[in-house]
Amino acid sequence: MKPSTARQRGARAKGRPDTADGVGREALLQAAIDELKHTTPEAVTLAGVAARAGVHPALIRYYFGNKGGLLQSVAQVLVEQGQEAARSKIESDAPIAEKLADRLRSMIELIQANPQFHRLVLDQVYGHTGSHSEDQPLSRITSRGLRMIIAMLHDSTGARVRPVDPRFLHMALIGLTEFFVPAKPLLQELFGADADIEDLKTRYIDFLGDLLLNGLLEPQANTTPPPPPRITPH
Predict the structure, then answer these.
(1) Is residue 146 part of a domain?
(2) Rg of the Cα trace of the chain?
(3) What is the mean pLDDT of residues 121-142?
(4) Which of 3, 62, 143, 226 is deepest in the core (most CB within 10 A)?
(5) Is 153 buried (19+), middle (13-18) or exposed (0-12) by CB count in 10 A?
């Protein structure tokens, strides 16, 4: 082989292992996401992800350092993908009820597509807080999530939205949606073994929207007595 040919074929980032052409960081992240659809984070191995991507495990170590670095990157990607999927609707001029329903649905469907999502986020995002700088994954994700909540509360139709703390609402939406998917046995116990989960999901989203927008109490009838009639003196 001529030296010039060897240099051309070796044109790559320093230290990057020789591997299959066209396999980069994004492809490895997708391979890990696909692996986590069938395997718990604890059971995931670099060898398994590498085999799915068709590369040597050394390439994963080159990009992510170790399994922890890979899983942390996967968790961030999944959160950001979910936020991006909802962004256009949230930032639109749609009524708040429509924005809320879309956001609830997107959060539930993210977990449906990625059953290990909650555990990943707990371990790899919330579990790596350290400092509170803006460079931390939790800080970036939370900041973006809060901006979406504030945008959702803006209703261009003129509907009056009472003042609420967007930080609590952000937490509430996470809590209200994360249990729906793993709660399938409970749903079947409550609604029957042959219950249609997709139908229940739609009904649950409608229920949450009504609960959040209207609360539990029936609106009170106006009990203020009418003013007495005016008597015009003759």
Answers:
(1) yes
(2) 25
(3) 75
(4) 62
(5) middle
